[in-house]
Amino acid sequence: MKTENKISVFGLGKLGCTMLACFAHKGSSVVGVDINETSVSKINSKTSPIYEPGVDELIKKNADRIRATTDAADAVMNSEASFIIVPTPSEENGSFNTKAVESVAKAIGAALKNKSDYHLIIVTSTVLPGDTARVVKILEETSGKKCNVDFGVCYNPDFIALGSIVKDFLNPDMVLIGESDKKAGDVLDEIHLRLVDNKPSINRMTFENAELTKIALNSYCTLKITFANVLADICEKFPGGNVNVVSQALGFDTRIGHRYLKGGLSYGGPCFPRDNKAFAWTASKLGVSHSLASKTDEVNNFHRDTRIPSKLLAILKEKNAKSISVLGLTYKADTTLVEESAAISVVRSLAKENIRIHVYDPAGMTEGKTALSGLKNVSFKDTAKDCIQGTDLCFVASPWKEFKTLTKEDFKSAMKTPVIFDAWSLYDFESEKDIDYRQIGKYNGK
To answer: Which CATH superfamily is 240-439 part of?
Structure first.
């Protein structure tokens, strides 16, 4: 195995920046490439242009092995492998727009014209079956060279969660490689063996099988999340029902497992919703029934747009109250993103009613203010304590660590008559006589 890899990363978003930082952390020389000059400048100033735990520290610590540029040819000529991790936004029909991937492929192909050494191109952006093969065609047409002779191509998506990308990238459950030939796969295999801290399963296959595996995996995760939320709804309907007890027992069956089997809010973010729609689109395109994936979205949206807002409004009516505090706006903890956030959807639904709404998030206030702009009865607060101050009901929408530090005294002193509806079972307030504590997926006698 080589002692060092020379790598270029095209796209300095959340995943691209994290990849760059992790490759450098493991001893590789890395060139980041982006059309955004601000991102390039920040990298060259030893600062992360994105919010993701651990990334800024890794960039600072390994700055001598990191640089960034807007020049694609510079990056290709000074690396042995190029990772493409640029956006592939969803189309209305559920497919992906691959224009950015194709643009990068053209730039890399143009650079390959003047390179005599073998070069590996890795598509990490999520694409659909058949898209990586089109990248190969673009590279050949632009460079005038042949795949599997002058260069190799792999499809290598990552399975990470925002907020824990560094950990997930260095400790993957598996590595998925769609390879143009054995040599391309061998080179990428070696890169990953240098990178990871654990010993993941390495799964090598054709482009198309790898492309399908990526969206199928995320589609299956959405199914587990939605199933858990249906369980939660059922558990709320009978005395003693508790989704945490039921899902914990289910998860011990090795055919099922515990991950993503917890009653809470709907799935959201930049991956799960769109990959589930892409899975349905792929099935439809091939003439296969996609009702399972479509139904998952339907149930998920009902949970987000109807079930949870209705429960909150019912509590307010029960208490003859008119104010609510919402702790958490991002689609999950440890990220700034509110894309497809269930919390944002709940706030929008509540804002249609004649109630006062306080909101707070440790990192998502900027994006939250944009998403909720124009809602006159929504107030943005600076801290969690400010958010719950003077409200009748507190809805805990995201499991941020900061929220766990709130004590029963904090709620009692800040709220009029404390009622807490906890989506993530963060607190142990069930025995508190002065707090009406309710949880998603647990019977509360109402």
So the answer is: NAD(P)-binding Rossmann-like Domain (3.40.50.720)
